[in-house]
Amino acid sequence: MKHQLKRLLRKLVAKGFHVTGLRSWFRTSRAGVPVLMFHNVGSPEETDYLPDHMKVSEAKLRRLLRSLQRAGYRTLTVQQMVDEFEAGRVPGDAVVLTFDDGYRDNHDLLLPILQEMGATATIYVQTGPMKGRLNWLHHYFWALHRVGSHELAERIAQQVDRQHLKADLRSLPPGDEAAEYAMKRLLKYEITAEDRDTILARIFEDLGGTDGELASSVYLGPEECRTLDKAGVEIGAHTVNHLVLSSLDATQQRLEIEGSLRDLESWLGHGIASFAFPYGRAWDYDDETLGILRELGFRSATTAMPGLNDAQTPVLELKRIAVNEDSDLAEVLCEVDGVYRWLDRRGVRLGA
After folding, report:
1. Which of 145, 167, 201, 290 has its CA 20 to 30 A from that of 91?
2. pTM to 2 decimals?
3. pLDDT at 191 over 70
């Protein structure tokens, strides 16, 4: 009930400040740069199986960029934002666009929009798919799209050994969305990575999936990354296989992080400054992760924790605001203008 009330108040505040134009008043005291987080752009047939919360339509992205331009905002890459911070500046007219995972639609659909709108972005690329390897999430989403949440949960339950996991998988909430969320949490945190990966890969193959074919149709390859790079879009690293880094030992973490770094360096012919944590919540990485990033010379790393960024924000734990097709643009623009941050400082906590 409390959460629902907060959501309602958040929408009402956004609508009021947006319609009246009063949200722009907060920009002068914003004191931070918003980094917006996206994944897929548009609805190409190849990514039909991916969930809606990862997608934003071309039309909605254009509306957002036009609104930002009308408000006087310019876009920066993550590296450019860090340059500003290191020079002692926190630009009040800047917004950063980031896109996670490295999907082919970022080249085919996003790049023309950025060029049309005179904007730029940072794209974090997972490199394992270009070696014919898909991580478990793609097997999961692909199978989920074909058989539904409860049927998939039953197929997994038949192959796990521990009885309590069988019981949890067979007692998911009745609604598809709630069931999918609960099942994904079990797969991320309750089943060993080896068992999870093996089971989902087997189900994926049994349903007719092929890693190499799906990866090549869905993900950016070296040539697309080079085109984006030459167009002024920053390419950042996002590990090789998109695993929960805090679940790995130091050697495995280094292989995941450095592996993606070296792949991208070889594709582009220059260094990589920016990194994004897979999943990006505070429990998905640890001090070991941060130490490896420092040793490898990354200048920044972005999380999925909400908020704005300034010179005091740890450069290896930058905050981001998630945006997808269901996001209310008035709410996004109030985040960008610092409305919720201003209210938060006064004890009214409506931020994401």
Report:
1. 290
2. 0.93
3. yes
